[in-house]
Amino acid sequence: MDLVIERARGVLTLQLNRPDKKNAMTAAMYQSMADALAQARDDASVRAILIRGHDGVFCAGNDLEDFMQRPPSEPDAPVLQFLQQISTAAKPIVAAVSGPAVGIGTTLLLHCDLVYAADDARFSLPFTQLGLCPEAASSLLLPRLAGYQRAAQTLLLGEPFDAHEAQAIGIVSRVLPLAQLHEFALAQAAKLVALPASSLRVTKMLLKQDAQVQVAQRIAEEAAQFARMLRSPQAREAMSAFLQKRKPDFAPFE
């Protein structure tokens, strides 16, 4: 099972479960996560949501073979359903990150409320390296968190950064030793469960309401550009190079 879904003591845990593929996301996984988040919205027994991977691996981004076979070209594509659900979730979302968090593995964290990272976590947003553009409203949310210059360095170059830099940027709430990560994140989710659900819901609404419409618009704008760029020669070269384990050559393209 590529996504393990557990409900216990008020916490809905979504565990990415393709460790052999570094938890690379498929369309089926996006759909399962979107459906689970939608169900949690109306399930009074769910008071908090925890998203996690495994020790040493959170999410390596999209599974490129699956992605090329099922590109997100329609408004109801599974990845866009997932982004709509996570960006509008009324209940608090906690994330626990260990190892690589690539592409969507980083951008989904921008929609979580509490993000905890192990000291082995590595983040990257390599969209330009793949001939693509940012997604998940990261082009809106990252400059707000980090300031323009830091966001530009992160999104234009797409180079990896560690957990402490992610904390300095504002993506990560706290950095922990790996041995403590998952227990600590679950304990934080349990603290949320113990608080009044209405207070958490209203507080989260107040924190996010000014940006809510802008986030939805930016997700749609990015998705349209992303779909167009996915068909470009640059993206095809980048994907082919990745699958062939070679360095891409963008020299022939403008």
TrEMBL record:
Q: Which UniProt keywords apply?
A: Isomerase, Peroxisome
GO MF:
delta(3)-delta(2)-enoyl-CoA isomerase activity
Give the subcellular location: Peroxisome
Q: Does the keyword Isomerase apply?
A: yes
Q: Name the CDD domains for this protein.
A: crotonase-like (cd06558)
Q: Does the keyword Isomerase apply?
A: yes
TM ranges are none
Q: Could you tell me what this protein is called? A: Enoyl-CoA hydratase
Species: Mycetohabitans endofungorum
